[in-house]
């Protein structure tokens, strides 16, 4: 009778132990998915901020290019005239 009881304890112990193991793995995977969602939201916000900063830099560069073109036209018109630069 003792060997049957030992086998029953071993059987049910392995069933319950593996059930607990898989339940714990499932719970941790669910936590990881929710943490990844929060992380993804944070990354999305950071990318949007980078895009806004890039657009601002692009506008500044366009203004600088316009100023450079104006300065180039101004200096080239002064070189064509007979006046001496100051």
Q: What is the secondary structure topology, with strand pairs?
A:
Layout: H1 2-80
Fill in the keyword field for this structure.
86 residues; mainly alpha; 1 helix; 92% helix; rod-shaped
Please, could you describe this protein's structure?
The longest helix has 79 residues, at 2-80. The chain is built from one helix and no strands. The protein is rod-shaped and about 120 Å long. With 86 residues, the protein is mainly alpha-helical.
- Supply Rg: 36 Å
Task: Tell me the total number of β-strands.
Answer: 0
Shape: rod-shaped
Sequence of secondary-structure elements = H
Poorly predicted ranges: none
Structural class: mainly alpha
First-last Cα distance: 115 Å
Estimated helix fraction: over 70%
Subunit organisation of the chains: single chain
Q: How much beta, percentage-wise?
A: under 5%
Mean pLDDT: 86
Counting DSSP H or I runs of 4 or more residues, the number of helices is 1
Largest sheet: none
Summarize this entry quickly.
This protein has one helix at residues 2-80. With 86 residues, it is mainly α. The protein is rod-shaped, with a radius of gyration of 36 Å.
């Amino acid at each position: 009778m003792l060997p049957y009881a030992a086998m029953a304890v071993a059987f049910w112990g392995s069933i319950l132990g593996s059930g607990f193991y898989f339940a714990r793995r499932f719970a941790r995977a669910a936590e990881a998915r929710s943490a990844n969602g929060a992380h993804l939201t944070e990354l999305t916000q950071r990318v949007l901020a980078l895009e806004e900063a890039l657009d601002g830099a692009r506008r500044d560069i366009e203004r600088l290019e316009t100023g450079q073109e104006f300065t180039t036209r101004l200096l080239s018109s002064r070189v064509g005239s007979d006046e001496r630069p100051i």
